[in-house]
Amino acid sequence: MIKDNIKEVRKKIAAACERAGRDVSEVTLISVSKTKPIPDLIEAYEAGERYFGENKVQEITEKLPQMPKDVHWHMIGHLQRNKVKYIVDKVELIHSVDSLRLAVAISEEAVKKNCDVDILVEVNVAEEESKFGLATEETLSLIKEIAKLPRIHVKGLMTIAPYVDDPEDNRQVFRTLRKLAVDIESQNIDNICMGVLSMGMTGDYEVAIEEGATMVRVGTGIFGARNYNI
Ligand SMILES: *Cc1c(COP(=O)(O)O)cnc(C)c1O
Prior knowledge:
Elements: H1 2-20, E1 28-32, H2 38-46, E2 51-54, H3 57-63, E3 72-75, H4 84-87, E4 93-97, H5 100-113, E5 117-122, H6 139-146, E6 152-158, H7 171-185, E7 192-198, H8 205-210, E8 215-218, H9 220-223
Parallel strand pairs: 1-2, 1-8, 2-3, 3-4, 4-5, 5-6, 6-7
Pyridoxal-5'-phosphate (PLP) binds at residues 32, 34, 55, 76-77, 160, 201-203, 217-221.
């Protein structure tokens, strides 16, 4: 049951925080509800969850009006520029900005809608070809450009680590993202903050927390396996 899964995930988050000498309040659990029906989201909501992550614009716009108003929606998937307009004033955080063109589109739409948009820059730390995200060494220069744009605010970094059997294999990926955030923070760029590190999924969120994650994105561990054929 979803409620039991959440209890288990919460327990593991607390244990990882304990090992790392961190307070649980430093880590936000994002329940990744993509492909899952509203009753599943409601069950998570009733178990206390308020942060939901989706990777498709259309799913966010469909689900949002069906859920209580105090849900915080996070866009965690690849975002196309022509869809920015549908979510820019609806989501709390866009985790997946990986190009200046996308950042410009978000900024322009935010100006139009008179709202502010918080984003993370997605870094492909492991340099997997199949994944979106910037190379580690491109990140700082992109951030310097985004910093000049109105109404868009960089709050930190996000990465999707490789799929591995042993989560320890991703420890270095998380460490690298954290180090990159520290390096960028030390540049004291106006309008740039590195407070958020969105890293860790069902298979590796405990290791990610030990390495400094402030947001973990857990789907399968809460809602069970996804069926993409329905
Ligand atoms: C689907 C997804 C997740 C959750 O993956 P699980 O392995 O099911 O926890 C996390 N982050 C992103 C960007 C995703 O697309």
